[in-house]
Structures are given as structure tokens and as C-alpha cells.
Amino acid sequence: MIIFKSINKLKEKVNIMANIGFVPTMGSLHKGHIALIKISKQRCNKTLVSIFVNPSQFNKKTDYRKYPRNLNNDLKILKKLKVDYVLVPKIKDIYKTKKQMKIKLKKKDKVLCSKCRPGHFEGVLGVISIFLKNIRAKFMFLGNKDFQQVYLVKKYLGKKFKTKIINCKTIRFKNSLAYSSRNKLLTKKYLNNGIAISKIIKNFHYKITKDFSKIKEIENIRYKISNICSQIEYLEIRNKNNLTTNINKKNFKIFIAYYLGNIRLIDNF
Ligand code: AMP
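Above: the input record for the complex with adenosine monophosphate. Below: its predicted structure, written as C-alpha cells.
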């Protein structure tokens, strides 16, 4: 495993490789990340994982500061997985060029997280475009846990780069809570609340698949969840193909963002 601390050093090496799979992460690796890495390893000759807590996608400084970081442990995990290349760039290395792609979201895409976290996805799309411009991977693997992220990356960057964007399923604990780096910040009580919330939504999803008219129960669900979390930022059912509210039995997806104390979690079923 070769660790690169600068994108330039990595650049020459990866540019010449034909079949590279890229897994961008913010570190604090868990089974969700590991699943993406394993898929990349199966499909590609070489796998590159980046670890970069991207400041431009945090709309609150405190959130950026308290984001969990554990580089030594991450490197151990990556070594064990026999990852070929790891990129751990410095902030100034990523943001040194003024010619960064500035992406403006269309009004219709300002829903869910992009409505609640202004500038967040502009930051995500910005850093991913810097990566793809330099790395030219054949595939990039992203998780459906961040469903809107995959949707927007495909929509805004899909045609700009040759890299094929592959979305992979959300990995969950047996109790249905999705793996997330932010879970590490939760107290036991909050963790149990998170588990309960994911079970409520999972069951609600199941009910709707059996009888679509049950979507009208969303207000009961909202009430139930509001009793076991600090704040629901959004709970919405949207069309998974275009994120509009034009939904039917086949295309619906439930999206939630909520707070447990001051920890913000998202999920979708
Ligand atoms: P992050 O480090 O949170 O920025 O996530 C890096 C990548 O891992 C993103 O593509 C996420 O969607 C993906 N990811 C995070 N959690 C999970 C999960 N539980 N299952 C699958 N993919 C995940």
C-alpha cells in the first residue's frame, strides 16, 4: 500500500493506470466504507482510497471541528484490505488552484440536505471534481447512504468526466441503523434512539410497499420520531429518480435528517 500525501505525487502514477477504482471518504472508516472498497477491489485492477475531511462541505465550523478523525486506525484497516493507494491530502494541496470548478445547484435541486445545508453539495461537488480531474479513475464508488450526494454527483459531474459513478447499497447493523462515522459521537442513549428511528422508517417503508395509501401516515411517523430525537430537520417521501415529490408505489423513497443532541444523522429507505 502506497500512501500519498499530495495529489501531485499521486497524479502521474494513477494517470497512466487503465483500471483504477476510486473510493473517496472522510475517514473514520467503518463497514460502509469497507463494502465500497471491496466492490472496487473486485471490479478494478487497482484501488485508491482518499481520506479527506473536506472543510468546504461543512456549513458549520463546529461540525467540521468535531467530525471524527482516526487516521492511524484507518490506515491499519486499509492495509489489511490490501488497498493499493491511499491519498491523504492537505487542505492547501486540494485548494491551491483558483481555477476550481464552481458548481451552482439548480433551484429544483435545492431540496432535502441541499436546502438545509446551504453550500454543502457545492463543497462536495467541488472537491470531487478536483479529485476526478487529477485522478481520472475508471470507476468511482459511492454509497446510497448519501443518496442525494450520489444523485447530484451523477447529475452534475457524470458527463464532465470519463469516470463511471457506481452507487452501492447502504450497509447497516443488524438492528437496521446505517453505519456512519458520526455514530462514534453518539452516547449509548442516542445510539438506541438512532436504532429506534431507523426501525420506524424501515417499517414505514415496508407498510407503504404493501399499501401505498399508507404514505398518509407520515405525520404519525413524524410525531413518533420527534419524541425520540432532538430535532427532525426533514422527513420527506420523494421520487428516487429525480427527487421530486411526484411519487408512486415504484419510485418512492423516504428521506430523513435528524439530530440526536447536536449530532446530525441522515438516512433513507
Ligand atoms: P464519508 O466518509 O461519510 O464521506 O463517506 C464516504 C463514502 O462512503 C460515501 O460515498 C458514503 O455514501 C459511503 N458510505 C457512508 N456510510 C455508508 C454506509 N453505511 N453504507 C454504504 N456506504 C456508506
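Notes for the reader.
DSSP finds ten helices and nine strands in the chain.
The longest strand covers residues 231-239.
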